[in-house]
Amino acid sequence: MDRGASSLMPKMLLHGTPIHEVFFGGNGSSFPFVHYDALFLHTQITQIHGDKDFVLFHPDDSPYLYPRPENEKFSQVRNVFEPDLVNFPLFAKAKPYFETIRQGETIFFPCGWWHTTLTHGPSITYGRVVLNSVNYDRYLDDKYRRWVQNGKFKANAAYALGKMVGGVFSTLEALSDPRHPVLGPLTSTYFLAGSSWTTPLSPPPSTGITGHRRTNNVS
């Protein structure tokens, strides 16, 4: 169940959380930082126009990506295509996953996956976040860190409400699927329209990195 899209989710728990986003890009444009998404949200990206290159890293590679001391969700490595291995030598141990998302294709990656993008022409991308039983508690904890900046009393009240609502969702989810009374976590892998990454790849020469790509094409 996508709790963020449910009518049962109080609006105050989602306040300030963008559920839908549209990204525009041009030739050579890229996201300026390697990062994983705020509030530990899962991400679903659909390419509306043009192509977009994605580079992703598993959460287990976090020690090699040099999280910033002031914001652990952003990497100090500014350019994964031409990394500074003198200042960031452990980055060489990180295993990138690379895929080009073409018009009409969708990529989904769970919370905590590091990523950045690069476009080679006009691009329009639609993004949507997903909140479910897997990332709900981490979302709530991250939200609390924001709420508490505006007062501990209100933050505690909102957090308590969030925990109560989470319990309601968990009960409804268990009842709705009697075969699996406790919903299992998302598999810790990278998804692209149902296919998995298992074989080594050689990205376009312009990227200069190696990693893995999915084994079957999306029709």
How does the major sheet shape up?
A: 4 strands, antiparallel
Structural class: alpha+beta
Q: Kindly provide the name of the CATH class of the domain at 18-131 and 185-214.
A: Mainly Beta
The overall average pLDDT, rounded, is 83
Strand order of the largest sheet: 1-7-2-5
Low-pLDDT parts are 181-210, 214-219
H-E order: HEEEEEEEHHEE
Distance between the amino and carboxyl termini:
27 Å
State the total count of DSSP E strands.
9
CATH-defined topology of the domain at 18-131 and 185-214: Jelly Rolls
CA-based gyration radius:
19 Å
Contiguous helical run count: 3
Helix content: 10-25%
Percentage of residues in strands? 15-25%
Work out the oligomeric state of the chains in this entry.
Answer: single chain
Question: Short description, anyone?
Answer:
This protein is α+β, with helices and mostly antiparallel strands and 219 residues long. The protein has helices at 11-14, 136-147, 152-176; strands spanning 20-25, 42-49, 52-57, 96-101, 106-109, 114-118, 123-130, 197-201, 211-214. It has three helices and nine strands.
